[in-house]
Amino acid sequence: MFTNNEIEQQVAEFLLQIKAIKLQPNNPFTWASGWKSPIYCDNRVTLSHPTIRTYIRQQLVAAIQDKFGSVGCIAGVATAGIPQGALVAQEMGLPFIYVRSKPKEHGTGSMIEGDAATTSGKRVVVIEDLLSTGKSSLQAVEALRNAGYDVAGLAAIFTYGFDVADYNFKQANCPYVTLSNYNALIKYASENQYITEKDVDLLKQWRENPSAWGVASN
């Protein structure tokens, strides 16, 4: 049985190894929000690597069973949470649904896709690939609750560990668990020469106040 720390470090290693996470403290990325960021995370890349994809699937299942116990359905958050959620549902032998970012503009106007007749009311765990502020994830949680689902919580591959995310999930009364996190990533990256000590300082500064770091970096 792996410890949480071993899982955090292994997932961090995998994400850096396949460049699902890229660290560029001196050449920051620009997020859709406009923030300048020294890190970019695209966990969709894991889907192209069967060994890593399998490990993530198995550890998400183990985390769900440990954190939430028995559940009756898995829900993915569109779009990146859909394939991860489908893999988890298959492993657990559970029904799968997914939640759109907004209601469909044609046909039924659905926001939740799947067989509502057989899944509504079930205890569900929501699957995300990545947590930043938690806004889109909690929008999905709210949609599921409004549709009659009993949301046990959320599981994700990676979190930036922003305080605002912790606050938002607490306010929504939605517990969550992740396989790895920003602190574990920086620790692994530093110990394995992905970044220098100077880079570590920049990355820590960004983590403390990403919006201010972005302004300062312009």
Automatic annotation (TrEMBL):
Keywords: Glycosyltransferase, Magnesium, Pyrimidine biosynthesis, Transferase. Its cofactor is Mg(2+). Its EC number is 2.4.2.10. InterPro entries: OPRT (IPR023031), Or_phspho_trans_dom (IPR004467), PRTase-like (IPR029057), PRTase_dom (IPR000836). Orotate binds at residue 132. The keyword DNA-binding does not apply. Gene3D superfamilies: 3.40.50.2020. 5-phospho-alpha-D-ribose 1-diphosphate binds at residues 100, 104, 106, 128-136. It catalyses: orotidine 5'-phosphate + diphosphate = orotate + 5-phospho-alpha-D-ribose 1-diphosphate. GO terms for biological process: 'de novo' UMP biosynthetic process; pyrimidine nucleobase biosynthetic process. Pathway: Pyrimidine metabolism; UMP biosynthesis via de novo pathway; UMP from orotate: step 1/2. Residues 65-171 form the Phosphoribosyltransferase domain. It holds the Pfam family Pribosyltran. GO terms for molecular function: magnesium ion binding; orotate phosphoribosyltransferase activity. Belongs to the purine/pyrimidine phosphoribosyltransferase family. PyrE subfamily. Homodimer. PANTHER family: OROTATE PHOSPHORIBOSYLTRANSFERASE, URIDINE 5'-MONOPHOSPHATE SYNTHASE. Catalyzes the transfer of a ribosyl phosphate group from 5-phosphoribose 1-diphosphate to orotate, leading to the formation of orotidine monophosphate (OMP). This is Orotate phosphoribosyltransferase. The gene is pyrE.
